[in-house]
Write the structure tokens for this entry.
Amino acid sequence: MHRLIADQIALLGFDELFTVTDTEIRCVNGSSFTFAGLRQQDAGKIKSFEGVDICWVEEAQTVSKKSWDVLIPTIRKENSSIWVTFNPELDTDETYQRFVVKPPHDAQVVKVNWNDNPWFPKTLDLERRSLQQRDFEAYKNVWEGQCRSALEGAIYAREVALLYEQGRVRPCPYDPLLPVHTVWDLGWNDQTSILLVQRASEVRVIGFIEDSHRTLADYVQQLRALPYVWATDWLPHDGRAKDFKSGKSAEEMMQAMGRTVRIVENLGIEEGIRASRMVFPRVYVDPSAEGLLAHLKRYRRAINATTGEPGAPLHDEHSHAADAFRYMAVAVDQMSSAPAIPDPYRGFRIG
């Protein structure tokens, strides 16, 4: 990439004015262009930047909330600005919500499309018309800048769309006659994702918690602060793995905190995905848990670059919530909906 930039500068006859390195372009007048990534795990490195006049974030549709929360306070020089360019994917994406749906009061938001280009070539117009006839849903996103209903190739695209179409994303208030189960995907550097579930004839996801770099005790304290009657905490099979520092498993630590813990049956991923598809028609999701649906819209398979064939699901920032949903689907028929009775140690237990 940097070699290409250097070649372009030379082609324009400006090579004596600029020096191109792996991380920046320096000009003889003292100005410079610096390149940096905004992947979630690298976003903290941005904090070292200072004196930036213009920060241009390209392909910004994939930038996470965490990365924006780090970047924006970093660009603090007087009269500095952030330029954001992207083609939207999902209307729940952080970038779309932050700069289009609820933009800052001093933001200038401009939608620019192919028809705004006075030099739009006939070759591209033929390509545009071809996609319009072949795949109108894709056309609206690629050429008209409209959001997709789900990410292309998403594993649960149709199932999530039906949740909205059938009105099953709606307020699901806590029912005090039903205990609340939690379903976990465990992480530290990666996200820990927790579903809060009540089971009746339907399956109600009444809450969703997701964060990283927090202890189990911290999550349990957050749960205890909720005015719910608790049932079982369902952990994945690695919940039995011993932590090398403490010598205890997540299962053992949570039991020591007075939680009722069970391990979800360790089915293969594909079998778990089939179980998820089976449970979707029974699921209702409270709007407070729409973060879960945002992840499910983006949960997709890796595509072989040579053959174009889909492979295993990607392990990324969206897979943790999808894994928790999969564990819920596997465990849901074992979830008790029995009323709670007092327990002098924990406050409540399931009878």
About this structure: The CA atoms of residues 98 and 260 lie 39 Å apart. Residues 2-115 form a domain with the Rossmann fold fold (CATH 3.40.50.300). The chain has two domains: 2-115, 157-350. The first strand starts at residue 18 and ends at 20.
